Amino acid sequence: MTAEQQDALRKNNTERLRVMAARTGDIEDDDLETMDRTALLELVAKAILAKREIEKEAVGGGAVAGMASERTDTVRELELQIELKKMEWEATNKKMELENERKKMELEHEWRMAQMSKRDGRSDENVQNSAGGMDETGAETVGELDAGRFGGDRRRSRADVLADKVKRYGAALRQVVTIRRIRNSSIF
Q1: Cα–Cα distance measured from residue 146 to residue 132, given in angstroms and rounded to the nearest whole number
Q2: What averages of pLDDT result for each successive group of 10 residues across the chain (188 residues)?
Q3: What pTM, to 2 d.p., does this model score?
Q4: To which H or E segment does residue 123 belong?
Q5: FRET partner for 60 with CA separation of 20 to 30 A, picked from 67, 76, 84, 188?
């Protein structure tokens, strides 16, 4: 150590020297309390010299240490990229599994519905018309819920529907009126 550094070290009070010695970690707190000022000065001076030696080795081997540091940084970066790709792959894989599971459930549902309609003896067309409406022959069908009101009969003929009765009656009246007009106005 230079004379200036020694003087700067001597100017520190005893408590400050104890703190500096404690930071080195070479001695326990109980021993620090019992040490006198000269022992503390020697301990701190040795710690400072040892620290400088380590720094000189690091600077002298700085090129090697810098290359090793760059390699570890590159390796760490590659490891992080690999982890990121792995996480992306797992997320994609999980998404595909969920989509496949959803499709499987949809297909199972469709299969169950088909089995239920086969068991009931109905085709898909009958299932669609079960709510009521017109069938392919022109007869109005009664929905399954309405079937109980009409004695369980699923179909009603056109003659039984009130709207059809009114329509036929109106058509018949038109024919009668038209025939009378023709007779009254024609040459007959």
Answers
A1: 8
A2: 80 85 79 85 85 75 59 84 92 95 93 85 49 50 49 59 83 83 67
A3: 0.32
A4: none
A5: 76
